[in-house]
Specification:
This protein has a single domain, classed as Rossmann fold. Helix content is about 30%, strand content about 30%. The protein contains 5 helices and 7 strands; from the N terminus they run βαβαββααβββα. A hairpin with a 5-residue loop joins strand 3 and strand 4. Helix 1 packs across helix 2. The longest helix is centred in the first third of the chain and has 14 residues. The relative contact order is 0.25.
Length: about 150
């Protein structure tokens, strides 16, 4: 698996990086967003969606489980934190979203890891306690087109 790490010094830089990445990955894909609470998964999602050229207000889908952006929807933004198991994921109609030709942003994606979702980009956001505003953003993929784009970042 190819991976690359990017460091940002603020939430504004995280947003700007995600916006730039979204502009380059302007095709349907699945983005797994890993990171503990407060690492910036929603900030990253906001920048990514804006980079796709969408003007929708991006909010955390913590209670709604999924938000749709674009008309027709081009991005489905999931927060799977509150789901207990794969059955709940199935019952909410997750598989229906897979066939829409849209990008899926998955926060707390553990329940979806068994799905063979491609093209796939795994993103892990982390921070050091000594520099709490900085983020390390680890991007990993096996997809050739995404690898090519990541090598130019």
């Amino acid at each position: 698996m190819f991976s690359v790490a990017v460091k940002t010094k603020s939430s504004q830089e995280t947003f700007a990086f995600a916006k730039r990445l979204g502009g380059k990955l302007n095709f349907p894909l699945v983005v797994f967003l890993h990171g503990s609470m407060g690492m910036g998964k929603t900030v990253f999602s906001k920048g990514f969606v804006e980079g796709l050229g969408l003007e929708d207000e991006v909010t955390s889908p913590t209670y709604t489980i999924v938000n749709e952006y674009g008309n027709p929807p081009r991005v489905f933004h999931f927060d799977l934190y509150r789901l207990r198991d794969e059955n709940e994921l199935y019952e909410m109609g997750f598989e229906d979203y897979l066939n829409q030709g849209a990008t899926l942003l998955l926060e707390w994606p553990a329940l979806a890891l068994d799905y063979l979702l491609e093209p796939r980009l795994e993103i892990t956001l982390s921070a050091d306690m000594n520099t709490p505003d900085e983020r390390e953003i680890m991007l990993a993929t096996n997809h050739p087109e995404i690898m090519h784009i990541l090598k130019k970042i």
